From TrEMBL:
Keywords: Signal, Sugar transport, Transport. It is found in: Cell envelope. Pfam families: Peripla_BP_4. PANTHER family: D-ALLOSE-BINDING PERIPLASMIC PROTEIN-RELATED. Residues 47-306 form the Periplasmic binding protein domain. Its main location: other. This is ABC-type sugar transport system substrate-binding protein. It comes from Nocardioides marmoribigeumensis. Belongs to the bacterial solute-binding protein 2 family.
Length: 343
């Protein structure tokens, strides 16, 4: 079994392996069921993954990473996705249905901290390993439901927000900025906003923080309103790229391109292209493809009875215009090397 993130990324980049939701039988509900490899018929060697909506390219890349690692290691995997990144009930229903089937490990990427807890309780009662990726399951809710997570794999979101804050200070020097987060109360969004806030404290004036539910159009609308109220605004920080690109459009509509700096988090390909074009000042790139790969690798180790770290931090990197071409060329794989703790 070869656990090489670099190799799997290279396979995707050369076109040898590109697996995504559009090629599966998920249909209009946004889910996919891609059983890859030659894993046997028993649940002991089958993996189920439930992720956020494939309406967002971040989670498309995550699904690609899951499928690529399963293909490389000849492991059977079934991936189900929510209809959208706000479809908490639909995602919960998908996990509950899979929990009644025969799988040896589950990879979960919850929309909120609590929406998958009921399904996870059913899985935990069977003593099946659970690998939590990207967005954390709420620790208190999990404990109350008797859910013992095998590991958490994801970005240090506070650190990612801090990198964006440092970049904003460097870009604008001083003045007013606004923050646009995801779903109100979301742990991931909150950590990114907190990291940014701490990085700019005493240096920049945050005039408003608002939620746009991770959605581009809502962020565009919110940014337009904020700029109307604050004509001297210097910049925006968005908790994900989709919202960042909505803000970029709002800035263009206002005729303020080059005057209002926009920085976001994710490192999706369209955001990298916007950075290269000079529309988006920077993105803090996460690597959902690598997170997906690590999720499968962690499940394989857990199913084999091997020890898995309680927490695995996935890599991030600030991408500005000078690094954009390299990041695009290596997408969806990380463009900077990182240590894989599961090797």
């Amino acid at each position: 079994m070869q656990h090489s993130l670099r190799l799997a990324g290279a396979l995707v980049l050369t076109g040898t392996l590109v697996l995504s939701g559009c090629g599966s039988d998920g249909g209009s509900d946004g889910g996919s069921d891609g059983s890859n490899g030659s894993g046997g018929g028993g649940g002991g060697d089958k993996i189920a993954a439930v992720i956020k909506g494939l309406d967002n390219p971040f989670f498309q890349a995550m699904e690609d990473g899951i499928n690529a690692q399963a293909e490389e290691d000849s492991v059977s995997v079934t991936v189900q996705a929510a209809q959208s990144i706000t479809d908490t009930t639909g995602q919960s229903d998908k996990l509950s249905a899979l929990a009644q089937q025969d799988y040896g490990c589950f990879v979960v990427n919850p929309i909120s901290g609590t929406n998958l807890v009921n399904g996870l309780a059913r899985i935990g009662a069977k003593d099946i390993p659970i690998v939590n990726i990207d967005s954390p399951v709420d620790a208190k809710a999990a404990k109350a439901a008797g859910v013992d997570l095998t590991t958490y794999i994801g970005t240090d979101n506070t650190e990612a927000g801090g990198k964006a804050g440092d970049a904003m200070v460097e870009a604008v020097g001083s003045g007013k900025v606004a923050l646009i987060g995801g779903i109100s109360g979301d742990v991931t969004s909150g950590a990114r906003l907190d990291g940014f806030t701490k990085a700019v404290e005493g240096k920049l004036d945050i005039v408003q923080t608002t939620a746009a539910d991770w959605e581009r159009q809502k962020a565009l609308t919110a940014a337009t309103t904020i700029m109307d109220k604050n004509p001297d605004l210097k910049g925006f920080f968005a908790a994900n790229d989709d919202m960042g690109l909505g803000i970029v459009q709002a800035v263009k509509n206002a005729g303020k391109t080059g005057k209002v700096t926009v920085i976001s988090v994710d490192g999706n390909k369209d955001a990298l292209q916007a950075v290269q074009a000079g529309d988006l000042y920077a993105t803090v790139a996460q690597y959902p493809y690598a997170v997906g790969q690590l999720g499968v690798q962690a499940c394989e180790k857990a199913m084999a009875g091997d020890e898995v770290p309680d927490n695995i931090v996935s890599p991030t990197a600030l991408v500005t215009k000078d690094k954009a071409a390299e990041a695009i060329a290596k997408f969806p794989a990380p463009f900077e090397a990182f240590e894989n703790p599961l090797d």
